[in-house]
Amino acid sequence: MKKPGSKIPPFAALFSSSFGTRREALSEKHSIPIVNDSFDEIVSRETTPESAPETAALMVLEAVVVEKVDNRIHGEAIEVKANERPEAAPVRNVMDTMDETSPLASQLASEHQRRERLSGRKLPRPNTTRYMTVSNQKGGVGKTTTTVNLAAALAIAGLNVLVVDIDPQGNASTALGVEHHADVDSIYDVLINDMPLADVIASCPDIDHLLIAPATIHLAGAEIELVSLVAREQRLRRALDVYAKYREAQGMERLDYVFIDCPPSLGLLTVNAFVAAREVLIPIQCEYYALEGLSQLLKNIEMIQKHLNADLVVSTILLTMYDGRTNLAAQVANEVREHFPNQVLQALIPRSVRISEAPSYQQTVITYDSSSTGALSYLEAAAEIAERA
Fold this sequence. Notes:
The chain is α/β, with parallel strands linked by helices. It is built from 16 helices and ten strands. The protein has two domains: 10-98; 130-388, 3-Layer(aba) Sandwich (Rossmann fold), CATH 3.40.50.300. The chain is 44% helix and 13% strand. Helix 6 packs across helix 16.
């Protein structure tokens, strides 16, 4: 046992921002939710080494969870209470057994280094507004999640961002906390009724500099209504151009990024998004059928380039739902990087409980749990996109 004042392992200080991250990792490892009181209550500062109380709390949390997993009823949430501390693993003894080569220490040291690289980093403003359509015809790849979290990360960095939600499900609108019931003026009114975009845009309540043009259920019928309209493929592009001039006339700062969240299909809504954008961002799930879906998407983009928008380019590919425990995820990631070395971001978005939970609270993962690995990964991806400009 270490004596008071003795040297604490140098990685101990790295745990201070990682309590939520460790709980998330344990939840995923044991496939069961873990509910806990704050670590200050689980292990009081009076009974832990003064310089690293969080480290001790993390170790006690893991010891309690492992003990409970052995005895739990299948499907029952694990609740870690403040008065629970395994007698077999006293805090100071746990501290004595830790070393810098342990997997937990390595993981947290790596996350600390990643946060250090992002800390105080000022993202550059693009020379002109970047219009990016986020699209993948394969559903369930994290398209909307990617849209809202990249937008949030860039807005938090002080950049002016607009999200245009043209998916009838309206999930991007939900995640950013804006109303989008049937009576709300929405992007449907812009596309079908020629309503000015400025009249439907709302501000995200949680994040400054982040605007959204919400979707409503009326978009479900917009594909049919667009067929008979003049310049049906150009309507979103025209609305965005008019809005840019409106901001200039009002003396407002120009937008830095416009993200367009598409439905997982190639109908007229998605065609409008491709025509309005200059760049396509493709999220790809690290699973077997990823490249098959990507091939079809690229063929459709080529058709758009040939007939409707010659300036459109696939600028960014983001690997999502990456599970580092499986060989398949690594193989898919490597294969995508081999085929698209200049488009694939270095940042990987992991499978994450926090990313999945955030929309149910009408938040992005960055505002829901900024210390989580999911939030960190999206912040890295946003920084990479900004610096590529």
